[in-house]
Amino acid sequence: MKMLGYGAKELGIGLDAGAVDLFDRYYRELTKWNRRMNLTSIEGEEEVAIKHFLDSLTCLLAVDLPEGCNVVDVGSGAGFPGVALKVARPGIKLTLVEASRKKAEFLRDIVEVLGLGDVEVLWDRAERVGRTAGHRESYDVATARAVAEMAVLAELCLPLVKVGGVLVAQKGPSASEEVAGALAAVEAMGGRVERLIPVSLPFGYGGRTLAVIRKESQTPEKYPRRPGIPDKRPIRARVS
Predict the structure, then answer these.
(1) What percent of the chain has pLDDT over 70?
(2) Number of domains in the chain
């Protein structure tokens, strides 16, 4: 995991030796599971270190995650960015939301293998979690990576975020048009686009954009809609 340490330093993200060791263990466990099920198409230590681990850690360029910060990661998949952020910032409280049973099983395994505390894995749809007491408007930060377009993400994630909190959505290098097309959905959920942060991954691995959405008011009770509807009928601005 030397590339991880060098890359984190290049991004200005602090990682101690213990965290680097955990990432090495994470990589080995991910590789083992990937032989049995399709968790990721990205393979090899260098590519995983940069395209998964470092890419996940770029969220720290958008939001501080202090001790006790309550974070929800929606559509966690193989744990990106949520588990990676927990490794780097062990003091956060983390909830991982994953609709796939097999991926949720992997998440429970990796949390145990890495010895991570204050982590809850929910095998469920975000639409249901967002209507559940104890989760609705309970989180300081929501994260999402490669889950859905921005208009859909707003409805899946913002109902989980408390007023004053933020959603950090990891997007491709040309995210401005997608985010502009999602303004109606963001505003309907009580959010506001705070900023777009361009990020370049180290060692020439390409660009990303972090979309930072601030929660300014409570989400109306009717949102999120029932499972599947946000994706089928994203909220769009009406054309007059």
Answers:
(1) 99
(2) 1
For 101, other C-beta atoms within 10 Å of its C-beta total 8
Encode pLDDT of 55-97 as tens digits: 999 999 999 999 999 999 999 999 999 999 999 999 999 999 9
Asked if pLDDT for residue 140 goes beyond 70, the answer is yes
Q: CB–CB of 175/152 below 8 Å?
A: no
CATH of the domain at 111: 3.40.50.150
- For residue 117, what are the CA distances in angstroms to 68, 86, 92, 109? 12, 9, 9, 13
Give 238's pLDDT tier (boundaries 50, 70, 90).
low
Rg (CA), the chain: 17
Q: Note whether 75 and 126 are within 8 A (CB).
A: yes
pTM of the model: 0.96
Indicate if the pLDDT at residue 239 is higher than 80.
Answer: no
225 found inside a domain:
yes
Integer Cα distance of 172 and 160 in angstroms: 23
- CA 102, 205, 6: angle at the middle one, nearest 5? 90
In a domain, 172, yes or no: yes
List the domain range (segments joined by +) for residue 52.
2-232
Which secondary-structure segment (H or E) carries 163?
strand 161-171
Decide: helix, strand or coil at residue 191: strand
> Please, what is the end-to-end C-alpha distance for the chain in angstroms?
54
